[in-house]
Amino acid sequence: MSLAAETTARPAEEFRVTRSRRNVAWTGAAALIVVVVLALFPYYVNSGTTSIMVQAFTVLTMASMWNLLAGYAGLVSVGQQAFVGLGAYFVLILALHGTSPFAALPVAAIGCGVVALPLWWLVSRLRSGYFAIATWVLAATIMLIIEKFSSIGGGTGMPLPGLSGFSPALLTAYTYWAGLAVTVLALAAIYLLLRGRLGLVLTAIRDDEVAARSSGARVGLARLLVFVVAGAGCGAAGAVLAISQLQVQPGAVFSVQWTAEMAFATIIGGLGTIEGPILGTVVYMVLQQTLASYNAWYLIILGLVAILVALFARRGLWGLVDEHLNVRLFPVGFWLRITGTAGRSGAMKAD
Amino acid sequence: MAWVNAIIQGVLTGGLYALFACGLSLMFGVMKVVNLAHGDLAVVAGYVAIGVIAVTHIPVLWSFLIVVPVMALLGYVLQRTIIQSALDRSVLTTLIVTFGLSVVIENGLLQFFTANSRAIGTGLALVSGSFRLGSHIQIGYLLVVVFAVAVVVLLGLQYFLSASKYGRLIRAVADDKEAAQLAGADYRHVFGIAAALAFGTVALAGIAYGMYSQLSPTTGTDTILLFAFAAVVIGGLGSLWGTLLGGVVLGVAQQIGAQINISDEVLAGYIVFLAVLVLRPQGLITRRAQS
Questions:
Q1: Which domain holds residue A47?
Q2: A226 and which of A73, A108, A141, B111 could share a cystine (Cβ 3.0–4.6 Å)?
Q3: Minimal Cα distance from A261: which residue of B?
Q4: How confident is the model at residue A262 (pLDDT cuts 50, 70, 90)?
Q5: In total, how many domains does chain A have?
Q6: Which portions of chain B are predicted below pLDDT 70?
């Protein structure tokens, strides 16, 4: 009997397509608990720890956005520092006009998303490697333009006003919660986007762009949407950065180092999975904290590890975890489960 | 007169930018690799030249004879090892790997040689000397020589690719590497040769820039890579002469910008780059010639 006949001979209810092998409710509950525990941090850890955590939140937000770009939409941007810098400057400009920096944070994120539209129009003319350098040139250009305005600090930058009303403890806690909120929202947004139509279109593009186009997938629109979301996310991270550093310096916020950090964290953790950047951020923070007194060494080591991972373990650390434990914390793909009485119970993954 | 001077200086610096750009263009044309570490490798070449001169006390110009072959060899080795194995995986991997290399090299230089900028000090009349045209225009010998070198390198590359046996092999592999492989060409070796050529031009560019201006660990990205890329896009992807034209347009735009406001030199160049991207995304010269 042919395989096709065997398959059609089975009753339809023997197949089930699910998002996950285990119950999503459990991981959802676990995620909620983690967020609640993290939210309580300012009450029982010192401000040194929370400032490290804020740094981790910004790296995680940026890495997740870079992962969305490179891992799902195939867009390698080396110019995401444009949005980090713009986010910081949005907060600075609004704060100079009397808005609280915390209230300015969501405006900065939306502003960066809006700015991403004309920038996409410029860089989308170029593909792969040339797209990468074009985004880099754009980031350099935006920095040079911003440095021309002496009212926002010119080339040297300026301290962020509007935070002197807070007591140090309250400021630390608010900054921490802002960082946490940005990260949770960023991860939730990416998770929901990838579970929806966009995720399907992006998967189709990744598998075969020409086939996706000819089946009517709106490839350009999907990439535009990803670029805008990543712009807004990196902008939000830049806003948190400005608030946590209490100053905005063009050379620092527009540094290509941000893109290096987000890219390396993503690649080491695992490109193309939501869990990858989380794991990568942990690795990044551990390296950065242990090598903090050795200047640039953490970036050198991160870069070398990223090269090795890209060449020899393409799915990153999360890929290794997944291979052995077969788990998905954020299931965005599909599993085909055969639950029939024929005794062949197994699962096929498509993600 | 100041404007004429700006344009002449711009055209001449354009030669330097074309020298930055031709290796980038060549590697993309043949292997479809955009080498994000391109500029940092030029800085490495400059630093090696400084080291060689300091240790051996040879005349500056002799350092080219050592550094260019060394960098070409490095190019062959890098291409045959990590760049090729990245290429075997995906284009995305080549970008990740070359970006990783760029960050590692830049921070390595920062770590070992500090952030101080250094010039390839020479004391040669060639480097510091200049001649005058009228009372306002002063032209440095070095820039004229660099421009001439750029033209010679581009002519040489053009001739090599179109007329020599190896050039034909490179073009064949660039067109269809599987077909070339079937016809008996070892495309990996050919890629290595192309990378060696590209790295040789990178070494020339790095040393020339070190003599013309100053090298620091960040010069590789914020000047060499980005200017090289702007020159390639302005001129038109995949055309060697377009690269020279792109370099010249970028150089002139920068000098005119500097004439308006000294701090706008770099910005003016990028604005012309963006204008070309909007108005004529295929570049000033449409693709033909190599590859």
A1: 20-332
A2: A73
A3: B103
A4: very high
A5: 1
A6: 122-128, 286-291
The Cα-based distances of B73 to A148, B14, B197 in angstroms read 43, 27, 9
For residues B37 and B86, what is the distance between their CA atoms, to the nearest angstrom? 14
Residue with tokens 């980005």: B226
Residue A87 has pLDDT above 60, yes or no: yes
**Pairwise CB contact (< 8 Å): A137 & B95:** no
Q: Is residue A220 part of a domain?
A: yes
A280 to chain B, minimum CA–CA distance in Å? 15
Q: Do residue B274 and residue A140 have CB atoms under 8 angstroms apart? A: no
In a domain, A64, yes or no: yes
ipTM of the modeled complex: 0.90
Q: Where are the beta strands (DSSP E) in chain B?
A: 130-133, 137-140
DSSP assigned state of B80: I
Query: Whole-angstrom Cα distance, residue B200 to residue B74?
Result: 9
Chain A hits for B92, CB-CB cut-off 8 Å, are: 70, 74, 76, 128
Q: The tokens of B194 are what? A: 């192309």
Residue-wise burial string across A208-218, b where 16 or more C-beta atoms lie within 10 A, e elsewhere: eeeebeeeebe
What is the predicted pLDDT for the residue at A339? 62
In this structure, what CATH number is given to the domain that contains residue A157?
Answer: 1.10.3470
Q: pLDDT category, A347, cuts 50, 70, 90?
A: very low
Torsion on CA atoms B2, B4, B5, B8, rounded to nearest 10:
160
Tell me if A311 and B273 make a contact (CB, 8 A cut-off): no
Say if B114 is an interface residue toward chain A (CB within 8 Å): no
Is residue A48 situated within a structural domain?
Answer: yes
Residues present in chain B in total: 291
Kindly determine whether residue A295 and residue B270, on different chains, have CB atoms separated by under 8 Å.
Answer: no
Determine, yes or no, domain membership for A244: yes
**How much is the pLDDT for B19?**
92
What predicted TM-score, i.e. pTM, was given to this entire model?
0.89
Each residue's pLDDT tens digit, A147-176: 999 899 888 999 999 888 888 889 999 999
